[in-house]
Amino acid sequence: KAGVTQTPRYLIKTRGQQVTLSCSPISGHRSVSWYQQTPGQGLQFLFEYFSETQRNKGNFPGRFSGRQFSNSRSEMNVSTLELGDSALYLCASSFTGGPVLDTQYFGPGTRLTVL
Amino acid sequence: AQTVTQSQPEMSVQEAETVTLSCTYDTSESDYYLFWYKQPPSRQMILVIRQEAYKQQNATENRFSVNFQKAAKSFSLKISDSQLGDAAMYFCAYRSARSGGSNYKLTFGKGTLLTVNP
Fold first, then answer.
1. Distances (CA, A) of A10 to A40, A58, A87, A106, A111
2. pLDDT score of B92
């Protein structure tokens, strides 16, 4: 079974631009979560989607948004990029993300650099 | 809000030796899950081991085992017979077992960088 895939793997943008990152979960997984990883802040939760609905959102500004499609694939968008948005963005999928023990499996990440 | 603390930013171990990585967490919940993830230089986050808080028995996966002390809110990872391939950043993570979408997220510690010396 194929793992979580993320595209693109690397991205360079300039301040003020916007960017869209894509995540394809493991087949059968319906929950997709996004995390931002930076040297200073570590791993921080962005948001989680299940069946095309955002169930949970972390403490990030409204410039960060996401969506999930009917096939469970997910995209996240960052508008008006700032230098501080440079980070590794990780996507993780699980069956339900619900209260039962449900392991999140991570993709390889997208490295975003904002110049 | 839950917090996870990894007090050792870096650790080193000799190949074939044993090393223990520390993790403490703070929560008011009684039911939750704990995880150790490994992130090698490739940056792919890989699950090492997981523990359900309601289980008293410590989880074990081959050379990896945990010491789960619920009362002390401690969850350490022991790596036996360390191998060069174990070199990575190790993250401890917490997840609530409560129902409700706001609980379905992982809270990570800052990580411990493990170096394995030949």
1. 20, 23, 10, 16, 5
2. 98
